[in-house]
Design goal:
Blueprint (H helix, E strand, L loop, with lengths): L10 H9 L5 E5 L5 H4 L3 E4 L4 H8 L12 E4 L11 H12 L7 E3 L1 H10 L2 E5 L8 E4 L5
Helix pairs in contact: 3-4
């Protein structure tokens, strides 16, 4: 056990976070997300939700300051998202990375493409709709 590191962070995830460099992206995905279809490197975080993962990861990882560091999937026309998701994510961001720009939203298929290019996809058991978020790693200052 390491001090100061959330027990929600598996050894595999901790290693992956250390391997990521400036500009690399990590997707924290809900249970509906096709993580295994879009990316060869998937880390399972079964029993956890995205908000818990944000609370565990953000104290360890600086967010990018030169490019939009936080991206979510836009709600498709005719669909609805759980209205509590974005505020819950934002609360974790503000807790650990105050001053981070607003969360950007991109089209579903653009989000999938970004996920394909990401460093890793972390699959949670989040069941709220549109509960996916992409984080761009920055440099520590």
């Amino acid at each position: 056990m390491l001090k100061g590191i959330s027990p929600l962070i598996s050894p595999e995830l901790l290693k992956t976070l250390c391997e990521m460099g400036h500009g690399d992206e990590i997707v924290l995905a809900d249970a509906h997300f096709p993580g295994h279809s879009v990316h060869p490197k998937v880390i399972r975080a079964d029993g956890l939700v995205v908000t818990q993962m944000l609370d565990a990861i953000l104290p360890l990882m600086a967010l990018d300051h030169a490019a939009p560091p936080v991206i979510m999937m836009a709600v498709q026309q005719g669909d609805t998202a759980d209205p509590a998701v974005e505020p819950a994510f934002r609360a974790m961001i503000d807790k650990h990375a105050p001053g981070t720009p607003p969360i950007q939203r991109i089209d579903r298929f653009e989000f999938y493409e970004r996920a394909r290019q990401a460093f890793v996809v972390v699959m949670t058991t989040e069941t709220r709709t549109y509960g996916n978020i992409l984080l761009k790693k920055g440099v520590t200052r």
